[in-house]
Amino acid sequence: MIGNRITYRKADGVRIPGTWRHAFICNGGTFFLTDLVIYADGLIDCWGLVTIDEFEQKLRCGWVATDLPEGAEASAHGLASWRFGEPRTWLTPELLLAEVRDTVDELNGRPDSTARCLAAVDVFLADRTEENRAATLAAYLAIPETQRHYALGDMDRKDWPLQVLVAGPGDVTERWSDEPVSQEVYDEAVSYFEERARLIAERPSRIPADGPTTPHAPAIHLYHSYPRQRVEDPGKVALRSDYPAPIDINGITYSSVAHAYWALSVADSTAQSAIAVADTAYAARKLAADATQREGWEHARSAIMITLLRAKYAQHPDLAEILLATDDATLIYDDADSTFWGDNAGRGRNWIGRQLELVRSELHAKRAGIM
């Protein structure tokens, strides 16, 4: 539940909304009470920004701790330190991961597990088969256990009508297993949902004219790497500008986008030729750093880079498929040499990440026949 716990971070001048919750980080055997910050683009700050997949790894290895051992040392920075005595926790790695996924959905205005359960209720009420009831029960059990009492937003009844509905007459509810649901109680639950559906239907609807304002796919981190040769299945490393995918620009072939970028950045034609055939992108950058830069390059570089990226994915359809497979995810691009092109843990402007998103959108538009 987000409530009033709203924060944000900036990526390339864009505010990414987020929220936070308390969590323990286990570092060096000490458990540190900290804020786990969850952002709408699917990045989570647990002493460093990570993707959801990386966050799951942090949970599995115990870095983000849900198991609090008796007698373990704990600390709240600048506030207090203590040892656990008879610790009790309601979370497991699976539960915390499910809550985080729900929070990302909620930050983006998408249906979370609770909303998906209530959608299944609507399907059941429209066609009251046992198959649809079973689907509704499965959707209810998919709600994190810590949140199941509040799915209806009804503080008086809590989730009692929902538990009765998914159980059905003659069965038992999750909370009260000692007495089967009577037909009378079941009919009351059905009436509750019918009245609820009527009230919801009478509310005015508000649908954004241009679709969602934030991605529905989790963010993807393109970490700095040094690929030296093409491989059969490169994965997302192929989206790196230094990935060896030759491109032809005005009749000249460059070993990669990075080679072309650095060659075009210098004024001397001899230096350009040497950079174009450099063994690695790193060597190309080093040669460019030692040469005289073109006048006005800092104002032209963004246009040059987008041109090179378009050429790469036009000339390499297999790599275009890798880019298209990222859907509408925010692309976080790291560049150890540039806070202009790279995000670099939120300190950079992430311009290559943004330009990759633009090229991807153009590819989607062409595939859809829009342009």
Which sheet architecture does the biggest sheet show?
8 strands, mixed
Please work out how many helical segments DSSP would assign. Answer: 12
Question: How many strand elements?
Answer: 12
Q: Return the average pLDDT rounded to an integer.
A: 89
The percent of residues in helical segments reads 25-40%
How does the overall form come out from the CA principal axes? elongated
Give the structural class: alpha+beta
The end-to-end distance, rounded to whole angstroms, is 41 Å
As residue ranges, the low-confidence spans are none
Query: Topology as H/E string?
Result: EEEEEHEEEHHHHHEEEHHHHHEH
Q: Radius of gyration, rounded?
A: 27 Å
Strand content: 5-15%
